[in-house]
Specification:
alpha/beta, Rossmann fold, 6-stranded parallel beta sheet, 5 helices, 32% helix
C-alpha cells in the first residue's frame, strides 16, 4: 500500500470522544487537515475543545454531522481523504437496558456504514479501526485456553454475547464486520488496534465519558473495596 499523503485530509469518526480528540490533536500537530464526524457540530459544550485545537494549529479542522446508523452519512466527510480512522462506537458497560440497540447494532452497522463510504471514496488508501482487547477474549479466565497462555491476532472472543458482556460482543462483531468488508475490496488496507484500557488526561472538560468516569472513580473511593465486576 502506498504511503499516505499528508497533504490530504484524514477522516476521524466520533470526533468528540476521549481518544478521538487526542488523535485529532496529533494529526493537526503533524500539519494534517482533519475531517471529523460528530453527532452535533452546533453543540458548543461538546466540540469547543476541538475548535480550540484547530485555532492553535495551522492545519484545518472540519466538523461534519454523522450518525452511525444513517447510511450515507459518512460519504461527504470522507471525500478527498486517503486515511480513515474509525473510533466511533458506543462505550459503556453498565446501565444497559437494550444491548442490541444501545451497543451491538450501532457498533456493527456503524462500522459497515463507514467502510462502505470508504469504498465509495476512490482516494481512500487505509482504514484504521479502533477495536479492543475484548474482541480477542471475553472473561480473563479464557487466557488459560489460549495457546501457550498468550493471546494473538489469531484468537477471537467466542464467549461474549448480547446477554453476557454485550460491550465486548459489540466490539467483536464490529471488527469481524470490518475484516469481512476489507476482504471484498482491494482499494484500501485495514489496520485494527486492540487496546486494553486507555487512560490519561482529557482534552475536554466533559465528565460523561466512560474513560473519564472510570478515572474519577479510581480517585473518589468507588473501588476501595475491590476491583470492578468485569
Amino acid at each position: 500500500m502506498s504511503t499516505i499523503d499528508k497533504t490530504k485530509p484524514g477522516l476521524v469518526t466520533g470526533g468528540t470522544g476521549y481518544m478521538a480528540s487526542w488523535i485529532i490533536k496529533m494529526l493537526l500537530e503533524e500539519g494534517i487537515n482533519v475531517n471529523a464526524t460528530v453527532r452535533d457540530p452546533s453543540d458548543i459544550q461538546k466540540v469547543e475543545h476541538l475548535t480550540n485545537l484547530a485555532e492553535e494549529s495551522e492545519a484545518q479542522l472540519k466538523l461534519f454531522k454523522a450518525d452511525l446508523l444513517d447510511p450515507g452519512a459518512f460519504d461527504e466527510p470522507v471525500q478527498g481523504c486517503e486515511l480513515v480512522i474509525h473510533t466511533a462506537s458506543p462505550f459503556f458497560i453498565s446501565g444497559i437496558k437494550n444491548p442490541q440497540e444501545e451497543l451491538i447494532r450501532p457498533a456493527k452497522e456503524g462500522t459497515r456504514n463507514v467502510l462502505q463510504a470508504a469504498n465509495r471514496a476512490p482516494m481512500v488508501k487505509r482504514v484504521v479501526l479502533t477495536s479492543s482487547v475484548v474482541a480477542i477474549y471475553g472473561d480473563n479466565i479464557y487466557i488459560k485456553s489460549a495457546p501457550g497462555g498468550i493471546f494473538t491476532e489469531k484468537e477471537w472472543n467466542v464467549t461474549s454475547s448480547a446477554e453476557h458482556r454485550p460491550y465486548a460482543y459489540s466490539k467483536t462483531i464490529a471488527e469481524k464486520e470490518a475484516w469481512a468488508i476489507a476482504k471484498e475490496q482491494d482499494q484500501w488496507d485495514l489496520l485494527t488496534i486492540n487496546p486494553g484500557w486507555i487512560l490519561g488526561p482529557s482534552l475536554s472538560k466533559r465528565k460523561d465519558s466512560m474513560s473519564i468516569g472510570t478515572m474519577i472513580q479510581f480517585g473518589d473511593g468507588t473501588y476501595k473495596s475491590g476491583v470492578p465486576e468485569y
